[in-house]
């Protein structure tokens, strides 16, 4: 009689217990975005440059590839901080140009660099993405009175414990949309406005018109890219409501232009808030 054969349990078995354990371990892991913060060789900077270019000329193309990303990574959020790093670097260079032109002191250079990168870009995008995460999640996901919608879960950087492919609005994706919506206003207000300052920084009708037109374009671009980002998620309803701020931008532009209020004057004061003086 042959002796019974005793085998050790399989470490990576496909049973229910093993799958549950692996899922719990994966839930306790740090989101991939944070794990890749300093893995520069793995970052796709070429893709980030492509996105920046198309955000200006064809923004709809930027969000067309998210379905492929969802199928391969099981998350709408792209855990690649290359876009954030690249735009932060551009803001740093831009802050140097503004500082050297208007506040040529070492303390002002440092303050403005921190203001542009930390406050305007990172903190501003974080606040916007947090607000939109809850507004879009509650109004455009489950639906509101008179407007049908779909009920779904919300997660931070991925579907929270749901089945693979579950529809979930992720905070990471909201942040992705916010930092991409920031790029066209950055080009218009931090670069083009800087170049045109000798022309538009005057209290006359022509300067006021073109300066205000620059701010109108920035607001419209921001609203359009925000709309396109959430409109790409098929489980959200009535995303066209996100275009409503465009009406406010047009009204503000029209009122300020008629009254002769140069938005460039107020905009640059806000840029240098806490830097001068």
From TrEMBL:
Subcellular location: Membrane
PANTHER family named among the record's database cross-references: PROTEIN UNC-50 HOMOLOG (PTHR12841)
Compositionally biased region (Polar residues): 1-10
Organism, as annotated: Capronia epimyces CBS 606.96
Membrane-spanning segments: 83-101, 113-136, 177-197, 209-230, 242-263
Entry protein name: UNC-50 family protein
BP GO annotations: vesicle-mediated transport
Keyword tags: Membrane, Transmembrane, Transmembrane helix
Region of interest: Disordered: 1-22
Family affiliation: Belongs to the unc-50 family.
InterPro entries xref list: UNC-50 (IPR007881)
Topology term for the membrane: Multi-pass membrane protein
Pfam families, alphabetized: UNC-50
Recorded GO CC terms: Golgi membrane
Protein origin, superkingdom: Eukaryota
């Amino acid at each position: 009689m042959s002796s019974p054969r005793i085998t050790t349990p399989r470490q990576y078995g496909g049973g229910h217990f093993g799958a549950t354990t692996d899922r719990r371990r994966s839930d306790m892991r740090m989101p991939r975005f944070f794990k890749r913060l300093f893995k520069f060789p793995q970052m796709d900077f070429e893709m980030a440059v492509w996105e920046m270019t198309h955000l200006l000329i064809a923004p709809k193309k930027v969000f067309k590839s998210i379905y492929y990303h969802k199928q391969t990574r099981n998350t709408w959020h792209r855990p690649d901080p290359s876009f954030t790093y690249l735009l932060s670097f551009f803001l740093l260079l831009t802050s140097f140009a503004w500082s050297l032109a208007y506040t040529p002191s070492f303390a002002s250079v440092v303050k403005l660099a921190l203001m542009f990168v930390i406050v305007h870009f990172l903190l501003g995008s974080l606040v916007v993405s947090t607000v939109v995460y809850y507004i879009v999640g509650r109004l455009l996901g489950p639906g509101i009175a008179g407007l049908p919608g779909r009920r779904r879960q919300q997660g931070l950087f991925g579907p929270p414990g749901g089945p693979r492919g579950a529809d979930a609005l992720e905070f990471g994706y909201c942040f992705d949309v916010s930092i991409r919506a920031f790029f066209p206003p950055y080009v218009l207000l931090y670069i083009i406005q800087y170049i045109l300052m000798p022309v538009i920084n005057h209290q006359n009708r022509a300067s006021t018109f073109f300066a205000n037109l620059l701010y109108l374009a920035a607001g419209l671009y921001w609203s359009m890219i925000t709309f396109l980002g959430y409109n790409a998620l098929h489980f959200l309803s009535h995303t066209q409501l996100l275009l409503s701020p465009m009406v406010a931008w047009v009204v503000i532009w029209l009122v300020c232009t008629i009254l002769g209020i140069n938005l460039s004057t107020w905009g640059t004061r806000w840029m240098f808030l806490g830097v001068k003086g």
